[in-house]
Each structure stands twice: as structure tokens, then as C-alpha cells.
């Protein structure tokens, strides 16, 4: 059964799972849909890394514009659509990547209206993770969730929700 990674209502991902996700990220970034677009590669890498590092709350249009695109702090997001345009391009490239690629143990989804990627780790990817406990805490990071046929999210506002679904079988919702 798929389970969500959460620790005290914040995404908490074991080092082994993070490594699995980062390995998949590197594969996606080197793939044909992303190879010729350095801006799309930077965008996807930035949002995935921020999410894995527990800083998904920083993934707002303005902050991405400042960090990735060098915009000034007072730039008008209504007049400058660079972040929205790039996010849309990344969504298209991810769709193309997953169309062309056989089933993967990890999948990224960047929902419309959000810059926080939903990261799904399938059972096939978990076979290589020997220990799913949070290092130094002695507590497991996997917690059973009811209603696991769908992705479960952590966070408040829907646009800010973080979904890291672990143990999903390919074909499950979100996978």
C-alpha cells in the first residue's frame, strides 16, 4: 500500500529516498526533452531540491523570479510572466519525458497553479532503500494513511501542498 512521507506535518524524506529521487532527477535533466533547455533544467532542479530540503514554502512566483531569473525584489509578477511560462514549459517537457520513458520508480508532477512538485516514489524504487527511518531520530518516516488510493498532501493552501507518495504501484493515482 502506498504511504506518505511526513514528519510533524512537514515532508520528511530519508536520505536513501532523497538519493533515489535525485538520481531520477539527474536522469530527467539529461533526457532529450530537457537536454536543450538550460532554463527548464534549472527550474526543475531548483523546485525539486527545495522540496526535498523542506523549503517548498519558498516556491512562490516572486521568489523563483528573484532566485532563478535575477528579477528585482519589486518586480511585478502580473507584468512579467517568466516564471509561469517556464513552469508551463517544464510541465510539457515532463509530460513528454514520461510519455517516452518506460515505467520509472519515481515521478515528478508540477500541477497547474503550483510551483511545488509532487514527487511519487513507486514500490519498485523502494526495493533499493534498505532503511526508511529518519536518521538520528529512531522513528520511521512512513506513516499509514487512510484513503491511500489518492495522493496525500501536507500543507495548507492547495497550491502550497507537498505530495510525496511512497510505495505506490505504477498505475496508482498520481503515478
Short description:
By secondary structure, the protein is of the alpha+beta class.
Strand content: 5-15%
Shape: globular
Number of strands: 5
Can you tell me the number of structural domains?
Answer: 1
Report the C-alpha radius of gyration, rounded. Answer: 16 Å
Major β-sheet annotation = 5 strands, mixed
Structural class of the secondary elements? alpha+beta
List key phrases describing it.
single chain, 175 residues, alpha+beta, five-stranded mixed sheet, 6 helices, 5 strands, 38% helix, disordered N terminus
Q: What can you tell me about this protein's structure?
A:
The protein is α+β, with helices and mostly antiparallel strands. It has one domain (3-168). 38% of the residues lie in helices and 11% in strands. It contains 6 helices and 5 strands; from the N terminus they run βαααααββαββ. A hairpin with an 8-residue loop joins strand 2 (106-109) and strand 3 (118-122). Helix 1 packs antiparallel against helix 3 (38-52) and helix 3 (38-52) packs across helix 5. The radius of gyration is 16 Å and the shape is globular.
What are the SSEs and their pairings?
Elements: E1 3-5, H1 15-29, H2 32-35, H3 38-52, H4 61-69, H5 82-100, E2 106-109, E3 118-122, H6 123-126, E4 142-143, E5 164-168
Parallel strand pairs: 3-5
Antiparallel strand pairs: 1-4, 1-5, 2-3
Amino acid at each position: 500500500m502506498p504511504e506518505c512521507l511526513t514528519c510533524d506535518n512537514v515532508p520528511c524524506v530519508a536520505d536513501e529516498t532523497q538519493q533515489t529521487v535525485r538520481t531520477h532527477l539527474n536522469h530527467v535533466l539529461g533526457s532529450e526533452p530537457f537536454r536543450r533547455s538550460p532554463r527548464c533544467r534549472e527550474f526543475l532542479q531548483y523546485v525539486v531540491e527545495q522540496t526535498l530540503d523542506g523549503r517548498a514554502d519558498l516556491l512562490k512566483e516572486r521568489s523563483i523570479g528573484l532566485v532563478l531569473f535575477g528579477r528585482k525584489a519589486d518586480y511585478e509578477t502580473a507584468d512579467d510572466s517568466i516564471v509561469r511560462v517556464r513552469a508551463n514549459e517544464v510541465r510539457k517537457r515532463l509530460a513528454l519525458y514520461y510519455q517516452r520513458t518506460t515505467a520509472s520508480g519515481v515521478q515528478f508532477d508540477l500541477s497547474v497553479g503550483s510551483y511545488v512538485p509532487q514527487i511519487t516514489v513507486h514500490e519498485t524504487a523502494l526495493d533499493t532503500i534498505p532503511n526508511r527511518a529518519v536518521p538520528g531520530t529512531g522513528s520511521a518516516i512512513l506513516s499509514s494513511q487512510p484513503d491511500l488510493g489518492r495522493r496525500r498532501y501536507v500543507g495548507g493552501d492547495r497550491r502550497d501542498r507537498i505530495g510525496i507518495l511512497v510505495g505506490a504501484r505504477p498505475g496508482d493515482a498520481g503515478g
